[in-house]
Each structure stands twice: as C-alpha cells, then as structure tokens.
Amino acid sequence: MTNNEVPQGGFAEAGADLELVGISKRFPGFTAIEELDLTIPAGSFFALLGPSGCGKTTTLRLIAGLEEPTTGRILIGGRDVTSTRAYQRPVNTVFQSYALFPHMTIIENVAFGLKRRGIKNADPLAHEALQLVELDHVANRKPAQLSGGQQQRVALARAVVNRPALLLLDEPLGALDLKLRRQMQIELKDIQSEVGLTFLHVTHDQEEAMTMADTVAVMNKGRIEQMGNPQELYELPHTAFVATFLGQSNLFTGEVTSSGSSSISVDVSGTTIDVRSDRAQRHRGRVTVGVRPEKVTLHDSAPKQSSDRNVVGPGRVTDVSFSGVSTQYEVTLPTHGVVTVFSQNTSITAMHHDGDEVWLSWDVGHTFGLADESYTAAGSRFQDDTDTSMIATQSREKLEAELGAD
Amino acid sequence: MAFTAFSAQTSAAEPAAKRRSPIALFLLLPGILYLILFFVTPLISLVITSFQEPDPVRFGSFVNAFRWENYVIVLETYGEQSLRSAGFAALATLFALLIGFPLGYFIGITLRPYPLLQGLALVLVIAPFFISFLLRTLAWKQIFSDEGPIAGVLGALAILPPGQAITGTAFSVIFGLTYNFVPFMTLPIYATLASLDLRLLEAGNDLYGSPAVTFRTVTLPLSAAGVMSGTLLTFIPAAGDYINASREFLGSTDTTMIGNVIETNFLVLQNFPAAAALSLVLMAAILILVSLYVRRSGTEELL
C-alpha cells in the first residue's frame, strides 16, 4: 500500500460540491437507499433529516467511502470518487460514537490526519483546532479522561483541522445536554461560515436541522421526501411524513368537491376546507390537507364565514397545557378528531379552559395540500401501515374510535 | 508484577476491594492454603535441596548444608544448554507470533460478522488439546522420520543431503515448540482483537490512514496487551520445555535444553542439588527477562 495515494499537503481552498447520481445501496434482505440523486452546493450547510433506519447514516457512509454503493456515482468537486477508498477522499467525518483513538492523547488524536498527509506543522495546527473548541488545556490527556461533551468537541476538532472539502457530521450532538448542544450548534455554524467548508449534517433532531442548516432534506425509507430551506419545508410540506416529522400538523382527509384556478375545496366530513391551488400537491380525488397548530385561532362563538378563512367547529377543549410563552390546546371535534392549537399568551383574558366549546379558524393561505395517496384509493384490504399517508389517516381513525367509545 | 500482564483485558481497579473485610479474607482462605501447600512449600524445599551436599557416609544421598558452589557448578556445566533454551524459546515465540497474530486477526476481526464460523475456527484452534501433548509430538516425529513423507520428498529433491535426518535437529525442536504453543499465542491475541472497536479503524481510514498505516497506528497498539500475554504464555513454558527437545521425541543430544538437563539430573543421575539449583536458576532467569520485557513494553498501558 503506497502512501502516495493519500492526498498530500495543503488544505482545501474552499468547500466542494457534492453530487450523488442514482445512488442505491442494497444489503442482503433490504434496500437502505433507493435511486438517490442529490446535489449539495459548495459552502453550504446541508442537513439530512430522518427517523432512525431511514438510510441517512448509510448515505453518509457511502460519501465517506466506508461503504460501497450498489449502483450510482459519487462526485466531490466534480471528481468521481466512487471507486476510491475512504483514506483517499478529501472528506472527514465526525462520528456519532466519536471514535477517538483510546491509546493516543488528545493532541495526537487531532494531529493524526495531518500527520498522515505529511503536513509539517501538524502540532501547532492541532493546538489551534483545540483552541477553536476550547479544549487546548486537555491536549495531553487521554480520551477516557474527558467527559462525553468534551470528547465530542475533540472529535469535531480532529475532523475540522484537516480542512476537508466536505465535512460529514453523523448526529454529532446526540450525546450532549441541551445547553451544551445549543452552544455547539452555534460553534459549528460559526466554524462553518469561518472556514467556508461544505457541511453535511445527518440528524434525527428536526429542531437541530432547522436551526443550523441552509438546506434540509427530509429522508424516509431510503428516499428524500422533500428538500428545501427550513422555512419552506415547514410552511409547505409536500407529504404527510414531512408534515408530521418536521414540527406538528393537523391533518384532514377528504374528497375534492370543486377545483378552481386559485383554490380547491375539500369536503372533510361535511366541513369545507379551502386550499390555494399553488399550495396543493394534488387537485382531485381524495386528498389530505393540513395546517400548523400555531396558525389556528380559537373562538368562543361561531366566527363569520368568509372566503379567506377556513372554519371548523364546534368542538370541546379536552386538554390545556400552559408553557409560559404559549398554551397548547387539544380540541376534540366530533367529526375531525383531535386538533392541536398553539396560542401565544398575549392576553390573559383569552384563556380557554377544559370543556369549553370552541370554534377553530385559520387563514386559507396557511393550509397545505399533501401529495399522499388516499388510503381508500388502493384496492387491497390490508394496507402497508408504514405508508406515509397512513400516518394521517390512522391517527384520525384511532381518535374517532376513541370518541365513539365516549 | 509480570503476572498481571496475563490478563488481556484491562480492568479498572475497584476501590471497594481496598476495604478490609473479614469475609474477603475468609473467602481467600482456600486459595491461600492451596498456594502454601503446593507452591510455597515445594519452593522452599527446592531452595533447601539446591544447597545440599553429598552425604559423606552414605553414597548417593544428600545432607542439608549451605553449598552455594552448586550454583556455580551447574552454570559452568550447563551454560550451553541454558543459552540454547533461551534461543529456542525466543525463536519459537517469534514463529508462534507470526502464525498466531494473523490467525487471531482472522478469527477476531474478519470472521466477526459470522459468529458460527468464528466459533468453529476457535474450536479448531483448541482442537489439538483434545489429544495428548505427547501423542501429538510423537506423531510429528513419525511424520519427520527418515522413512516419512517429508524426508522422502526433500531427499528426492536433493534439498535434504543424504544421511541427514530431520528429527533431532534444531529445526525439528523449534518446529515442535512452535506447533505446541501456537494456541497459547493465538487465544489472547484473538481476545483483544475480538473486542477491538472497528469504528476506530474506520476513523483511521477516514483520517487519511491507508489500511497498512491504520494497522500500524491503531490496530497494533490496541492489540499490544494480547501480544504481550501471548508471548509470555509461549516463552515461559517453551524455555522450560523438556518434551520437544528430548531424544525420545523431536530432539537429540545436540538439542538438549535446560528442561532436559533438570529432568536427567532429577530422574537419571539423581543429583538432586544440581537439579534444584538449575530449576531455581531457570525460574530467576525467566522472572528477570519477563519483568524487563513488561517494563520495556510500557506496563501502565496494560495494567
């Protein structure tokens, strides 16, 4: 094994584009990733968000070169690296388990990558990287003598010190407590903008993904369900999975009754809910529509019908949880199940109580229509209960059954 | 001291053990009694024997004395055999390491995703122990004999000069030692490699370390404890071995090791003080060598 193949000397001037073309990865018995196409522009902070087992960590390992794709190509800065080995790629990873070398001191750990690439002033650079994560004072200790949070920062320093074209972060903040995590999120973001590297961050924490990343891709069952900037994803989710995984959503399923050029009307158990055409993924048949809890307003009496507001009700408040800044209400509607409402605590008089009869309304412009197939559309008796559209319908059916029992 | 290196796994010192408890002492009692009866008593008896001198009245028996010259005599008489023992044992340890490390690596790391094959391979490593050590060594004598297949083939190829036997040479003795002690080398190395976190190797690869570099900088240092235990478990018994080097097995009078000399003095010549002095010299030499080795290899990493 010659050492010449290792990228020698010098650092990446800036981050590099990452391009995945038609990547799929099959393990014996299951497919982790299916036909994935993804482009991450240079210098961006990209988050891959999904539940465990969705294929996000496999994607990361493919990019790092720790796994080989079954099909497809991986390009970094325009160069095809699919057939190169992990140690030949200008990529570094912050591992979920930190993977610090237990027999080396902290400074030896951080300087490891630099020394392998034959960089001369490895030790001063390693100390600089440790200063960046404020751990230079423990440089001569062994990893086992540090706390989990400190180890995590060392793992970060060990990767960042190499100035890779692409930095991969595998749930890097998972083991930290909330305060330290916030601090590290800010530090990471600072480091990223300071050194201008391309960051690919894999996480199952939607809040972390949204606060840190420029672009978030929501991944489910080996596919990217939706990709965009965090605000776009939050305000206009395309699938029930995104709507429920990224924040909370109130979802309603019904038949489209009229479809105009500007908006479509959906009949949900006798109530009409309007959605703007450009915010609906599908315009006919059985569709699922939704609204975010904080967009919904509570009323003591039936509000006036108007064309720009959707009104649902009456229902009863079944749960109130006060959290200081806002109050979360659970409103049970006989026809629509439970709807969650977040209400800002801007006036004390507007508080609603358990058992109050209320009406709900929200701006038509805040409603979104999802792409999910309706559950009655398919012919078979038993549906795959992990299908994304089922998440919405099942939860509703469950609640309806509960209400029936009352 | 050196004996702590035998445990391949590093274990944290338990602070609770420091507390003196009568129950702990009580539980230790059987072990202490056993050691006093079967280790300390024979050792003292051996030390006393080593200083005995011939009985001036009854020929062939010995009386207690302080004849320290016994040590000088045995060292002068058997210096060659002592050096040969150290040399043979060192070579056998080296060869056992060259065979045992790849084997331990294969079982502990390559076969890790296949637990069934891993178990099977481990059984194969231990399988020779199901047959007596003596029988296996005798079988090798048969295979290496002048009429055996190996001597026949080597003779026909003119690699082995006419009239030259394979048995009774340094080669066959070192071969026998290596063969017999490979499992003692393999098992501790396997134990450390089986618990090696493979994510560390991935991290090494990710940080621009080629497989060879990652092996040298990560795998090897992290398996040092196993290599250490394996070399000690091989070297110590190999240095005192008297089966492989004996004339009845793979050796000859040219390959006599210190173990054979002790055996002959005890059982044939019945020169008990010489045999006892030699045994103690062997024990002291091994203790000194091993403690130097443990110290050189950096004990604080292992204990």
UniProtKB/TrEMBL annotation, chain B:
ABC transmembrane type-1 domain boundaries: 82-293
SUPFAM superfamilies xrefs: MetI-like (SSF161098)
PROSITE patterns, per database record: ABC_TM1 (PS50928)
Membrane topology, from the record: Multi-pass membrane protein
Compartment(s) of residence: Cell membrane
Transport keyword on record: yes
Keyword Methyltransferase: no
Keywords (A to Z) from UniProt: Cell membrane, Membrane, Transmembrane, Transmembrane helix, Transport
Family according to the record: Belongs to the binding-protein-dependent transport system permease family. CysTW subfamily.
Record protein name field: ABC transporter permease
Taxonomic source organism: Microcella pacifica
